[in-house]
Amino acid sequence: AQTVTQSQPEMSVQEAETVTLSCTYDTSESDYYLFWYKQPPSRQMILVIRQEAYKQQNATENRFSVNFQKAAKSFSLKISDSQLGDAAMYFCAYTTGANSKLTFGKGITLSVRP
Amino acid sequence: NAGVTQTPKFQVLKTGQSMTLQCAQDMNHEYMSWYRQDPGMGLRLIHYSVGAGITDQGEVPNGYNVSRSTTEDFPLRLLSAAPSQTSVYFCASSYSKGSEAFFGQGTRLTVV
């Protein structure tokens, strides 16, 4: 079975600084996708970034980028120039290319200090 | 474009009561799922559907039923509510395998 591990339950970052959220996963599949979702206090789940496993290039979306290390099964999220609105819970998630079922990590709560 | 609509947003049930959480999407997505979110547990898959008439169990299906009679709707039924089903429930839909999942706003359910 696939597993997703987020070992840090909480992190804090100073506004305008950079923070990296860690995620590791375990799978025997070769075709899969990885995601980072943000959940602000409103409870809404918002896609931050998506990575296709067959692509070597790391995905980026504005201030958000990933470090995808396929051999190490690591998928960390880097947030640059942190803003107060980045404060939220962040979930790492995985799905195979065979379906759309998501396996989530336990999440990490990110706080941003002004 | 409404996306994924879940109702109700909040619900309190007594132990043993039954209820249906509604989920509808207007994006013509084939894939729909139900997850529950518990503190420290992340989101866990309850049931899943790849199209009208096709459903499958996820990681935590006990105590829940689903059906998918149309592409748009994917209701989740609690047959006899138990305090262990106190949770936040999310419905999600996606266009294809591996594509972004769009989530509803969630239902906070409390069983007393």
Question: Could you give a short description of this structure?
Answer:
The complex is a heterodimer of chains A (114) and B (112). Chain A is mainly β and 114 residues long. Chain A has strands at residues 3-5, 10-14, 19-21, 24-26, 32-39, 46-52, 60-61, 64-69, 74-79, 88-96, 103-104, 108-113.
Structure description:
The complex is a heterodimer of chains A (about 110) and B (about 110). Chain A is mainly beta. Helix content of chain A is about 0%, strand content about 55%. Chain A contains no helices and 12 strands. In chain A, strands 2, 5, 6, 10, 11 and 12 form a 6-stranded mixed β-sheet that branches. Chain A is globular and about 40 Å long. The model of chain A has no long low-confidence stretch (mean pLDDT about 95). With about 110 residues, chain B is mostly beta strands. Helix content of chain B is about 0%, strand content about 55%. In chain B, strands 2, 4, 5, 6, 9, 10 and 11 form a 7-stranded mixed β-sheet that branches. Chain B is globular and about 35 Å long. The chains are: A mainly beta (about 110), B mainly beta (about 110). At the A-B interface, strand 5, strand 6, strand 10 and strand 11 of A face strand 4, strand 5 and strand 9 of B.
Distance between the termini of chain A: 41 Å
What's the oligomerization state?
Answer: heterodimer
Largest sheet descriptor of chain A: 6 strands, mixed
| Number of H/I helices of chain A | 0
Radius of gyration of chain B using CA atoms only: 13 Å
Mean pLDDT of chain B, as a whole number?
Answer: 96
Structural class by SSE content of chain A:
mainly beta
Strand content of chain A: over 45%
Mean pLDDT of chain A: 96
How are helices and strands ordered from N to C of chain B?
A: EEEEEEEEEEE
Segments of chain B where pLDDT lies below 50 for 5+ residues?
Answer: none
Shape of chain A: globular
